[in-house]
Amino acid sequence: MSVKGMIVGAAFSITAAVLCTFIFVIVVSTSLLMAAPSIMYIGVFLQVVVPFLMVFSIAGAQFKRIERVSEGVKWAISSIMAFIVVAYAGTIGSLTTHMVVWGNKLENLAVGDIIVWGFIYGFLLLPLAAPVGRWLILLLVDCCKFFEDSKERGV
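Structure (tokenized):
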């Protein structure tokens, strides 16, 4: 397990969370022709930053193992990681963001339904999230290799 890879994975995850939030802002602002309050975008960032930190820190620490496995296993890893991110963002991330942004008022929400639908979203969005996750893992492995090589070059 590489501590340097874990640090690179954590930095990569924060960057990826910011970029995903930015892409969400572009899609929502242009496709729905609506202006959302800026607190909504902060909520989206809060929903994805924690699962990104979890999965990309672990993947960064294990990047040498991920690099050596077959393509099928890489797709399986990507699918599992994408499901974790989407399910977390749809369940715990959604509830946590609601509490942070709008205060501690969960009695107005159907918490059980949010949890059930978060897992349903995880499965339904898997065909979209898995290729994105695969691409992010490839970028992460390249970043880890760059920083691993920079140690040898003396950068």
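The two ends are 22 Å apart (CA to CA). DSSP finds seven helices and no strands in the chain.
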